[in-house]
Amino acid sequence: MDKKVLDRYLRLPIPFNKILATYIWIDGSGINLRSKDRVLPCMPLAVDQAPFWGFDGSSTGLARTENSDTKLKPVRVYKDPFRCEPHVLVLCEVFLPDGKPALTNHRSYCNALCEHHAQEDPWFGLEQEYTMLDVDGWGLGWPKGGGFPAVKYDFSYCGVGAKYIAGRDIVEAHARSCLYSELDFEGTNAEVMHASWEWQIGASQGVKAADDLWTSRYIMARVAEDHGVQISYHPKPIGMQHPGIGMHHNFSTKTMRDDGGYKFIQECIKKLETNHQKHMEYYSVDPEGNRMRLSGRFETAHHDCFSYGVANRSASIRIQRSVEKEGKGYFEDRRPAGDCDPYVVCGLLLETCLGSAPGACLQARPKPTKPC
Q: Which positions fall inside the GS catalytic domain (predicted)?
């Protein structure tokens, strides 16, 4: 469609007492997002000013047809980078008709743990990797007909030039959109595989990191839509001979950041080792895809073997050398796949390292869906 034609309508003035609020939520796949717009009389300046809303849960894989009235509960409001102020994006949790969280609503679990352990002031920093695909489903800028890039992967990481990277326009548009929306957006870089990139969220306090990550995924989907490009978070989108897609989680607490915190970091890592297999079940919407990614190649640990090390990018848990030197700081969990739910991963890190919380119950993992 011709954007110049659309621009004619976008210039039409809107009454001062009408704004558009885009409600966003996670559907039944556990990775895809849905949205719809609602006209409000004014810009909501706080989340409690955004009204609850409903939608057809059966059409999004979240409810049965005979009982499909599901509820959207606003949890955070952002400035809309596509329509600009006063229009907004409204991130929502999904609840079923009986008041229970929908199967893919894990925010309640994560938030309950963040609030229970608030005295430890948990921080999360998230590194979202992804792959750009052309409309035919093959890598953007890859030779057509199933061909592979002729260049080595060691030239694509943080690469410059059309020979080594593809899709920089999308990266630039996404970064500016996230900054406009006032997310805790911290940067971008080209990744190891041609047409794969990464953006970073945080470090942010508590559940905000996961909120911002999901909203940044929505913004990326909209930006890529304008360019006719698909975005994939699948952990192994091309195959075993090519790098995978992860979302490394950086995690710290007040005790870790205080003097002597390195000892507590080591204690937490031992707890993570004990719960390794449980975490592996939840660190991707497609656990088998994450097993393919965590092969021991391309700077990954083996899926079934927990490991940790200082400055070791082939370990399950990496400790930065400066953390060891200073005796305090954070650790990086390199196991989560690119399609993981950050609410789940952040919640599991809190629960494993600091203990459970009243009302924090992790729902059963949804059945794997088709790769996204």
A: 101-372
For residues 153 and 62, the model is more confident at 62
Strand, coil or helix: 285:
coil
Residue 67 per-residue DSSP state: B
pLDDT digits (tens, 9 = 90+) for 45-75: 999 999 999 999 999 999 989 888 999 999 9
* 113-354 CATH: 3.30.590.10
Mean pLDDT of 218-234: 97
Q: What is the pLDDT of residue 365?
A: 66
Q: What is the pLDDT of residue 367?
A: 58
> 14-105 has which CATH code?
3.10.20.70
SS3 126: strand
- pLDDT above 70 for 370: no
Write the DSSP assignment of 169-232 as a string of letters: HHHHHHHHHHHHTT--EEEEEE-SSTTEEEEEEEEEETTHHHHHHHHHHHHHHHHHHHTT-EEE
The b/e string for 337-348 (b: 16+ C-beta within 10 A; e otherwise) is: bbbbbbbbbbbb
358 within 8 A of 116, measured Cβ to Cβ: yes
Can you tell me whether residue 109 is helix, strand or coil? helix
Angle formed by the axes of helices 342-354 and 261-274, nearest 10°: 110
Segments making up each domain of the chain, as ranges: 14-105, 113-354
The answer to whether 299 touches 90, Cβ cutoff 8 Å, is: no
Spatial CA neighbour of 44 closest among 27, 60, 62, 23: 23
Q: For tokens 């006719």, name the residue.
A: 228
357 touches 346 (CB < 8 A): no
- Percentage, residues of the chain above pLDDT 90: 87
Q: Are 285 and 30 in contact (CB under 8 A)?
A: yes
The CB density around residue 359, as the number of other CB atoms within 10 Å, is 12
Matching residue, tokens 């993992």: 365
Q: Is 304 helix (H, G, I), strand (E, B) or coil?
A: coil
Please tell me the number of Cα atoms within 13 Å of 66 on its side-chain side. Answer: 0
